[in-house]
Specification:
- It comes from Glycomyces artemisiae.
- One of its GO terms (biological process) is DNA replication.
- By secondary structure, the chain is of the alpha+beta class.
- Among the domains are: about 80 residues, Helix Hairpins, CATH 1.10.287.110; about 100 residues, Urease metallochaperone UreE, N-terminal domain (HSP40/DNAj peptide-binding domain, Sandwich), CATH 2.60.260.
- The protein contains 11 helices and 15 strands.
- The chain is elongated and about 115 Å long.
- The chain binds zinc ion (ZN) (2 copies).
Amino acid sequence: MASQEWLEKDFYAVLGVPQDASKKDIEKAYRKLAREWHPDHNPAADAEERFKGISEAYSVLHDDKSRGEYDQIQLMKSGRGGFGGAHAAPGGINLEDLFGNAGGGSGGFSDLFGGLFGGGSGTRRRSGAVRGNDLRTNVTLDFADAVKGSTTELRMRAPGECETCHGSGAKPGTSPTTCPRCNGRGLVTENQGAFSFAQPCPECEGTGTVVTDPCPDCGGTGATTKDRVITVRVPAGIGDGQTIRLAGRGAPGERGGPAGDLLVRVTVRSHPLFARDGDNVTVRLPVSFPEAALGAKVKVPTLDGPVTLKVPEGTPTGRVLRVKGRGVPGKGDLLVTVDVDVPTALTAEAREALEKYAAAAPAADRSKLEELTGQ
Ligand SMILES: [Zn+2]
Ligand SMILES: [Zn+2]
């Protein structure tokens, strides 16, 4: 039995024993260290990590067979092995081939076996762990809720951790039992010539335990599909078509794997008046010609109630005026585009006044048109 992890770890150093330590010494060292570093008693931040390492080292070294294999791997690694080359293994198999990537620590082999050797008390076997699927759903938000952020409740039918067995798959009051095929090891060993290969146990899928009395609500899978209400916090300024990722709210993992994520695609309802330009909110403001020409104070609606905007004297149509802080909170403004209204129906009095104005006003400047086109 072999693992890439074994290449990189010094289990003797972890237990503080020499390489020729007796079984008894290994056991003594383990008991002392396990007591010292048990996370229930040791408040140090790394106590759990240390305790796991100690358990792992012990689980390998206290067993003659696995200790022998570990020693062999260390020998091959250091090139002191009896097989000829630094990385040569029996039959000419290269260790890099065997382990995918001997130096890097990633690759199919180590993924398959990573964390499998937890073994001893206090650690959890997670060899067959599979991350749960990501789930997808949609939500439609009002314009203002998207700008300002909101909390919304989503109703969806989706798989989640079974509430009866809390994901263990075992009937309440019972617990999964040690797998009879691998004796809880999570691995079965297959001999092929000079080599023995370990594979995740097919009976328990590498978990080391089997459910003999399955939970009646989930049939032993640890997951049930139910109508769920999920609270989604929508960040201020989210845009139409964007996706919110809720980590760990997707389908539950299998065999101790982490849950997937929930991806919520956002649709934002359009608003009859307001629109978005990034973090800014935009609005068109109709003003009369006299207001634009003479200047005026005009009431402008915002998502948080009206503000009074000063339209400066001589403001042309299409000019954008800015109301600070009335866009996405802390990020955007309200951009007000001035829209000079041309009256379509005039009273006799208004017409007379306009004609008077036309006679007194300067003509529109069309010199540019002539200059550029010669027409
Ligand atoms: Zn269940
Ligand atoms: Zn098994």
